[in-house]
Amino acid sequence: MRTKIKEIFTSIQGEGPYIGYKQVFVRFCGCNLNCAYCDTEFSQEDSTEYSATELAEIINKNTDCHSVSLTGGEPLLHIKFLKELLPLIEIPVYLETNATLHENLREIINFVDFIAADIKLPSCTGIKDLWEAHNTFFNISKEKNVFAKIVFDSNITEEEIELAGRLGQKYNIELVLQPKMDESNPLVNKEFMEKTLDLFLSQYKNVRLIPQVHKFLNVR
Fold it and tell me: Which of 17, 52, 59, 168 has the fewest CB atoms below 10 angstroms from its CB?
């Protein structure tokens, strides 16, 4: 089996609690969602096709990396390919996902070491009714090293904060608040970020606010 990969590159992780670790990034094409804030190019145009063996050989050369970040797009759309690829990878696997394809996760979770999962807020993404999908996803992933990333802007609601906080508390996962950014600038001010963090902390303590550090550093 072969699949199309948008790009492969090494850089530092710029989001979440693993900021600063060197990773080899493998960007898969395609996504099952269309978030309003998405700034990632993952179309099949100018992509390269690989077999699982070919891609694993490239990944395994990066022995100085903390892990391989499988990102996208949405990597879990490529579940048949992942089932061939993951047993061949010799460094830790860091899965970046929108936390909606829980059945696909179930098929490969034993080969994943870290899960960076989104909680998609309707106010920021423009997408509704993903709470139950996220709930099922975190129920499957809870035994792994998992955290949830929450992109937010000035439209975030108290109801969204409450629902996201409940998910964090239910599955004992760290919530990482990430202000929506334009280039290297957050689109909310310091006071709003502090207020949002305090509202989360009022109901659940394992919450951090971390912007996209790679944008500040001007790296990929």
Answer: 17
What pTM value is reported for the model? 0.94
Q: Which residue has the tokens 């992933």?
A: 141
- Cβ burial of 8 (10 Å; 0-12, 13-18, 19+) is middle
Amino acid of residue 21? Y
Helix, strand, or coil here: 92? coil
How many residues make up the chain in this entry? 220
- Domain formed by 2-217, architecture: Alpha-Beta Barrel (3.20)
- What contacts 194, CB < 8 A, 6 or more positions away? none
pLDDT tens for each residue of 1-56: 899 999 999 999 999 999 999 999 999 999 988 887 776 666 777 889 999 999 99
> What residues does each domain of the chain span?
2-217
